[in-house]
Design goal:
Chain A is mainly α. Chain A has six helices and one strand, in the order H-H-H-H-E-H-H. The chains are: A mainly alpha (153), B alpha+beta (248).
């Protein structure tokens, strides 16, 4: 294995751990908190009414958790990275429309009720996570359960 | 896709005529049966690994909920008493209509007084409207009194006069008379008590209590350890001196 490939593999691993870790953390904080709290945060974006917001509040944290674990462990790495990237893009869309419409969003709901960062801060932070998801998708194949299973397939 | 890439490469290596993964899976090309078997086995293992991870994560989260290992949501400032960084953090789930809560409140107030500076009590609403018809409204009124800076006094009046209003046939007049006694802005209190935002805050406390496995009032979480009722609360309170000495 040449030096460049090895560096890319390590970058891929780190990106997977970062993106996966963030998804696990965000999902866990919301999954152990009352769903109503996250539902309220979703409602403040004024994109969906209360019913669908509650449904999203009940499901999104678990999806984040599972995607995070898949990414960190490297199971279905490509799909998990793509799905994580798609979710992040969706979050970016929500944040952006809230910023444009100047909505009074007090808690973005990204990490449950424990963090209250500005929408702009969350937007740029998500760009970083999006980059990590992209790197995980491109270089995250090695040092994963996927590669182990494929080698011994 | 990673699968497509890997298996397209393997197909090429073996001079297989199948051009896509779909053809391999459909089994149209008999030469690819080895690849198909290998693909199925690897895929099955990946699904198994994914299933294990999903199971482990779900179990871990449910256990965290059950044992209240999740970070606790602090109460709004008007119903949190004591310094934020106090050594002993108490979360109290209470129903204003519940006689056991009334009895326990005396102990809580005493503890706050005796261990002033070392204890913080986060008051949480856990009304049980199925057995106490006005408990939810009482919680809302208390919160609105809190918004005017008199939560503790209003809560004390609700507890003291519990028998008078808790099982009233219609909306208890005491909600307004307590406000008058405390010289609160009554129209503001009424509109606040009827506001959806207030109801939402109370409901959020109830949901949080449900998540933490609260099913009786009063329930306390003292530095994460559960105590149900005044007796268990006092049992734990006996250990406060040791706890404070250890942290000195």
């Amino acid at each position: 294995m040449n030096e460049e490939t090895r560096t890319k593999d390590i970058i891929g691993l780190l990106a997977r751990l970062l993106a996966g870790g963030i998804f696990i953390y965000a999902g866990f904080l919301k999954a152990v908190a009352p769903a109503e709290e996250f539902a309220y945060a979703i409602e403040t974006y004024k994109v969906v009414p209360a019913g669908p917001a509650m449904f999203a509040a009940l499901t999104v944290p678990w999806i984040e958790l599972y995607l995070g674990v898949f990414l960190a462990a490297g199971v279905f790495t490509d799909l998990a990275a793509l799905a994580a990237g798609a979710m992040l893009l969706g979050f970016e869309g929500l944040l952006l429309q809230a910023m444009i419409r100047k909505l009074p969003v007090t808690s973005c709901g990204c990490f449950g009720a424990s963090m209250h960062n500005s929408l702009g801060y969350e937007f740029f932070q998500n760009l970083l996570f999006l980059a990590a998801a992209a790197l995980a998708w491109k270089y995250g194949g090695r040092f994963s359960i996927d590669s182990t299973l494929e080698q011994h397939g | 896709m990673q699968f497509d890439l890997i298996f397209t490469m393997k197909i090429r290596e073996r001079n297989c005529s199948a051009r896509s993964l779909a053809e391999v899976i459909s089994g149209r090309d008999i030469k690819c049966c080895i690849i198909k078997r290998m693909f199925n086995r690897t895929l099955a293992r990946k699904f198994f690994a994914a299933g294990l991870l999903v199971f482990a994560v779900t179990l871990a989260v449910l256990l965290c909920r059950q044992f209240s290992l999740a970070p606790a949501r602090p109460s709004p400032e008007f119903r949190a008493f004591g310094p934020k960084n106090a050594t002993i953090q108490i979360y109290e789930y209470t129903d204003f209509s519940c006689p056991a809560c009334k009895a326990a409140e005396t102990h809580v107030m005493k503890i706050l007084e005796v261990y002033r500076g070392s204890v913080r009590v986060n008051f949480k609403h856990y009304p049980l409207p199925t057995i106490h018809p006005w408990s939810f409204q009482a919680a809302a009124y208390a919160d609105c009194a809190g918004a005017q800076g008199r939560f503790m006094e209003y809560a004390a009046l609700l507890f003291e006069n519990q028998e008078q209003w808790a099982f009233a046939k219609s909306k208890p007049a005491q909600f307004a008379s307590f406000a008058a006694e405390l010289k609160l802005d009554l129209p503001a209190l009424e509109s606040c008590a009827a506001a959806p935002e207030t109801a939402r805050r109370v409901k959020l406390d109830i949901s949080e209590g449900d998540l933490r496995g609260v099913n009786a009032t009063p329930t306390f979480f003292i530095n994460g350890k559960r105590a149900v009722g005044g007796t268990q609360f006092l049992d734990q309170a006996k250990k406060f001196d040791n706890l404070l000495n250890k942290n000195r």
